[in-house]
Structure formats: structure tokens, C-alpha cells
Amino acid sequence: MPNLFLYVLICRWGFLVLFVLDICAIVQSEFAMWRCFRAKCGWAGRVFAKDSNLHGYGQMTEESLGLEPLGPKLIAYFKERQISEKTLSRNAVRQMSESKEIIAFTYKQNGLLVGCKFRTMEKRFWQVKGTEKMLYGIDDINHASEVIIVEGEIDKLSLEEAGFQNCVSVPGGAPGKVSKDLPPIEKDTAYQYLWNCKEYFDKVVRIILATDNDPPGRALADELAKHLGQERCWQVHWPKKDDTNCFKDANEVLKYMGADTLKRIVENAEPYTIAHYSKTFEQQSKRYPKTTFEACTQRGPGTMVQPGGFRSHAQVERET
Q1: Which residues have CB under 8 Å from 269's CB, separation 6+?
Q2: Parts of the chain with a pLDDT under 50
Q3: CATH topology for 133-287?
């Protein structure tokens, strides 16, 4: 029989939340989650049986983390990337007071500090211990029906320069590959930040995926679409920078092509299913002889010529 432990938590708005921790025999499953469903709160967390303390969001402050406003060196760093002081201020981007070359991206929910991610100018990252997995900029989509998801905090700031505040960033980068099936919620640790923000996406009708233009970034887009529903996802295509290479992300487009171009690119995102079909179609064109592929296109995009007859695109897609 599992051991049951009862904790009483008080959410940040002062209301009681009963929390039952079910310790199972399997060590990997010794955890539980909680959430306050009051509209003004949304306080959520997770604890493992081996943890000696329960950590909530309300304990964290800029002072306790040793943060201070950005100094001239980091302001110049962001200016080179076409990100203004106004955008940095609105998003409460800070620096460490003890090391003035370390950027601090503050994660807030309902205006309260719930986590912090640090970054050096050499692109080394780490988070404050006990930070709950959460999307960066979550308050900006609190009432949004359309949301843009990017792969990094600087890309979120870049889209704000292009006029989009309804944008969030994943907290931890991209996966190496796309998973076969969606795991149960308790085992879906890599995308816990989506489950923690589920209530925000319940009311969203259109999600624009603007992840990086590299294999991990494309894998992330596929995972996000799988978790959030392909039918409401759209995908951004970053333009070419020369004959052989494309721009990698939103900040690179902002830096070299400007805010107006970045805005136009996002506005021209296409439905994920069409984008995914185009990618699959291109892969098939390399796999099969040209004459066979031409025969397929003459019969329309829903079929693929194969020895032994035609198969649906869905059947072909499962093999790619």
C-alpha cells in the first residue's frame, strides 16, 4: 500500500490548498503536483518525496536573488541585437549585482517573480534552484486568443520590437528529436512547462510556432504542435540570408533585416499541417525517382505512387 502524506499549502492570495502526496514504490514516480485554480492565482508546483522542503513561488524576490537594473555594458549588448531599453524594462530584464556581465531573465506570473534564468554573453545558461517550469512572458498571454511561441528569451524580446507582445518562450531550449508518442502527464517532464500553463492555452485559438531554423528547433515545433494540437498551430518560415543558408531565429532577422521584415514574416506564417506536408513532400521527392514523383503530383498532393498502388499521405507520413 502506498504511504499518504497530507500537506496544507497557502497560495499567494492567502487561500488554503490541500495537497496529497502519494509515495509509490517506484522511485521515479515519487512526486506530486498542485495547482490553485483561482482565476487570480494559478499558483502551481511539484514536489518529490525525497525533497526536504516544499518550495512555492512567493518566496522569490529580486533582492533575494541579488539582481539589479541593467548597466551600460549589457544595455549595449542588447542594443547591438536591436532590443531597446523600453522592451528590456517592460520585461524586467536584470543583471546580477555581483557579476555585472550576467543577464537575468525574470520569470513572472500574475506580476510576481516565480523564477529566474541566467545567461552569460558567451551563451552559458542556468536557472535558480527551485524554479518552477514555466513559459517566459506568461503574463503577456493571459487574455490572448493568439499566441506566438519562440525558443529563447531574446527571441521573445525581438518579437516585441516587431510589435508582438502576445509571445512566450520555452524555458529550456529544444529537444534532440521528436518523441514517438505523448507520455502520461506525470512522465512528460520535458514539457512540464506546457502542462503548468495549460489553462492559458485552453482559450487560445491560434498558436504561431516561431522556433529556431535548425533540427532541434524543428523538432521543438513538432513537439509543441503535438502537445497543443496541430489543427490550431501555424509555423513561421525564416527567410534565406544567402544562396545556401537561412536565418536561424527571430533575433537574427531583427538584427539584419529589421522589425518591419520580422513582423511581415510572422504575419505570413502558414498552417502547421501545410508546412509539415511541404516538408514531407520534399523528403519524398529525394527518396523516389523523379518520374514516379512527377506522376504523384499529377494525381494531387493526397497520394504517393508506390509499387502496388497508391497510399494516402497519412500512410506515407508515418514512414518518414
Answers
A1: 208, 209, 210, 234, 235, 236, 237
A2: 1-10, 12-31, 39-40, 49-58, 280-320
A3: Dna Topoisomerase Vi A Subunit; Chain: A, domain 2 (3.40.1360)
